[in-house]
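Let's practice the habit of predicting before peeking. Look at the sequence and jot down your guess about where helices and strands might fall. Then scroll down.
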Amino acid sequence: MENNDSFVSQECIGALEAALGRSVFGSASHDSRRALIVINLFALEGWHIAEALGVPCAVASPCVVPYTPPSSFAKRFRQAYPGLFEFLQSQEDGKPASWREVEHWLWPVFTERWGRWRCNRLHLNEVPFASCVGAAAGTATRPATALMYGCSPSIVQVPGYWPDTVQVCGFWFPPHSWEHDVRVPPKVMEGFFHNTGGGISKVVAITLSTIADMGLIGESIGEAKHVVQVLTCALETAGLKGIFIISKRSWLESAWRSLYPSTDKKRKGNDADAPVSVQSEGWVGGDETVHGYVGSLPFQQLFPMCLGQGLPLVHFQIN
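Done guessing? Here is the structure:
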């Protein structure tokens, strides 16, 4: 795994061990039957950690799984793990897993990204479910993993070939209390949002965190810079402005600070004498067309200030 992946995964392990009173080494102070780890499809670390902690895991996704296995996946899997392939083919959904579940969403947990980390850090077999092969019936090493799509059943109808462990259960929204309070926009950026002419905002929110964390925009500062420059050019051509939401400690953050070092320093200087509550922490500068924000930003505060002022709300998310 890459350095950033390792750092994030280590944070996940520490947070879950502390919350559950358990350790990946096997000691426990709480009843695991009363615990549940809920992840999304872009946080598969949690699925592996749940196995190490002996805790059930569920997946909650706001969209239908956005990826499919490579065309050669089944052939290569069968060649590498013939026994496991036959086992999964013969299993019912959720007991502990079936090949239908692997093809639908579980296949990324078998990629090389996780194997060594599972073994060295979590003290698990490099290959998930490998210990099930040849085991006595009814001795599954982990409970079923339910996948819940937060979509309306009227929009996403469940086809018959989906695994029984997949459900469409309607939209859900986290409580407002879960979002930390952020001053949006900070004083030094009021002009960026409001000096757009005609009283109508032309600022577009662009979230790149997910695909950046997955390595889909490259694994170097140069590649991340190229993505930012292409999107900035597109915004300029369309006569729009952009707010980029960026993950911490990512290639994208490094690229942004490299592209706009002087504005970042200027912002910090302007905020030096401001009270902590109104400092623009997280905003990392930009130019007349784009500005960046590093971290998690409450969209309920940001979106009403973007294009259309929330009526209708326009948000470009690249996934």
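How did you do? The mean pLDDT is 79.
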